[in-house]
Amino acid sequence: MSDAMTLFGGDGNSLVSSDLFKSLLETNKTLAGSGGGGPRISIKGGRFREIIGGTQARLFKGDKINLIIVNAAPLARTYYEGVYDPNNSAPPACWSADTRVPSPDVPEDTKMSNSCSTCPMNIKGSGQGDSRACRFSQRLAVVLEGDEDNVVYQMQLPATSIFGEAQKGLMGMQAYAKLLGTHNTPITAIVTEVSFDEDTETPKLYFKPLRPLDEDELRVAVAARDSEEAKAALAMTVSQMDGVKEKAPAPKAKAKAKAAPVDDEDEDPKSKPKPKPKPKPAPVEDEDEDEEEKPVKRTAKATHAAKAETDLAGIIGQWDDEDDDDDDK
Q1: Using CB atoms within 10 A as the burial measure, which of 34, 130, 201, 245 is most buried?
Q2: From the CB of residue 4, how many other CB atoms can be counted at a distance below 10 Å?
Q3: 89-98, 193-202, 281-290, 316-325: range with lowest mean pLDDT
Q4: Contact between residue 267 and residue 44 where contact means Cβ atoms under 8 Å apart
């Protein structure tokens, strides 16, 4: 089948590369019935998954993935109401983009409080065990290393992947970002290895620097940072990215109601308000999943900027020192 470049006369046609031509492609998206706001990477079940329009498009091989973090949203809070149901997705009942006050988009009928600090869902024990029903999270805009299409994905981090002290060179996002800051290294200027914590039942991520980007890669990363796709990845909830339609607001839950546990940040409970919902265990990943596993495309570049190499060597050296110290204990 001929592509647009062939139909319009090949690479030499300036119309194809014009902003006007690109803007006209929006009509195609409308007619095609796009199922969501954009692609994202899920960590459901302790596996990296490419989600397009709410449907799993790819299951990445292994428990590590290499990517470039091009942008990040501030810490946020999200509260899902009702009993967990893995087969149904629903928008959150209440959420905050700054962890201080609910978003202006939260319906009055489902808003838990006018302030996050006084919200009953921000009290220990309002969730499972001693946890809080309203959870911290943080959205990232990322690009896979070696992806020639430079697709910008949303990646949402649960609280367990954000906070915590570094252990044996394994770091959550805040500790990782602080380490890079001490070496004057922008997180967007390096390839980051993201891996799962093997000692936890629920998905928890660790971050590690691999190498600096070369000039061409850095130029692409900066362009991705300023793209509309990156802005959408940081602004949209998981439900919005997957194209889940808004439902009529449910009656506000009582303060004593506890939210059911969730497998990870991608698991949105179905909105079924109950006076005292009983927690249900997180779903077990289907062992018979027949989806073809495809390796992530990774392309290492041979040439790196001299200064970037020096900075990264210091960071990786610090990692090695921490490992040696832990081994001596």
Answers
A1: 34
A2: 11
A3: 281-290
A4: yes
Q: Is the pTM of this model over 0.90?
A: no
pLDDT digits (tens, 9 = 90+) for 47-72: 999 999 889 999 999 999 999 999 99
Amino acid at 294: K
Distances (CA, A) of 259 to 62, 106, 131: 32, 18, 10
Name the strand (E) or helix (H) holding 95: strand 94-96
Largest pairwise CA distance in the chain: 68
Structure tokens that stand for 278 in this block: 């009983």
Q: How far is CA 90 from CA 41, 248, 263, 270, 285, in A?
A: 18, 10, 15, 5, 20
Residue 214 is encoded by which pair of tokens?
A: 């070369």
Rounded CA separation 41/308 (Å): 28
Residue owning tokens 């629920």 = 202
Q: Please give the C-alpha separations between residue 202 and each of 186, 198, 270, 296, in angstroms, as whole numbers.
A: 29, 10, 19, 23
User: What does the block give as tokens for 128?
Assistant: 């499972």
- Retrieve residue 255's tokens: 């303060």
Region 87-97: mean pLDDT is 78
Angle in degrees, 0-180, between the axes of helices 306-328 and 173-182, rounded to the nearest 10: 120
* Amino acid, res. 148: E
Q: Which amino acid makes up residue 188?
A: T
Radius of gyration of the chain (CA): 21
Total Cβ atoms within 10 A of residue 151? 15
Structure tokens at 251: 């009656």
- Written as one string, the DSSP assignment of 216-273 is HHHHHHHHHHTSHHHHHHHHS-HHHHTTPPP-PPPPPPPTT--PPP-SSTT-PPP---
Show Cβ contacts of residue 293 under 8 Å, excluding neighbours closer than 6 positions: 59, 60, 61
Q: What is the pLDDT of residue 206?
A: 96
